[in-house]
Amino acid sequence: MKKSLSIILMVSLLVFLFSGISVAATHITFGTGSPGGTYYPLGGAMADLWTKLLKAEGIEVTAESTAASVENSRLVGSGEIQIGMAMSSVSFKAYKGEVDPFKGTPQPILGLFSMYPAPQ
């Protein structure tokens, strides 16, 4: 009887202690482009959709206006933003350190997906 009561009290205490713990919200900054370009409205819509889909997990995504591909590669590489839109050719050259301002300094970035065809 004493053992059962101890177990019940211990479980109750643990439930009580952990019931007030909530998952801290995670904020993700999504670098887009200038408000007059294609990246900004597309990135804004994507950020809104991701926030809606990931709200239950406590994740919020905010689109931020930037100078687009090169700046987003720099911002992601430095950890200032978590996701950034960029042309694949710019991302590849930034990753390899072959484009200004990254000459000789490869960036620690990773591609997620291709958004739309952009022949060059």
TrEMBL record:
What Pfam families does the entry give?
NMT1_3 (PF16868)
Which Gene3D superfamilies does this chain map to? Periplasmic binding protein-like II (3.40.190.10)
Q: Known PANTHER family for this protein?
A: SLL1037 PROTEIN (PTHR42941:SF1)
**InterPro entries recorded:** TRAP_TAXI (IPR011852)
> What protein am I looking at?
TAXI family TRAP transporter solute-binding subunit
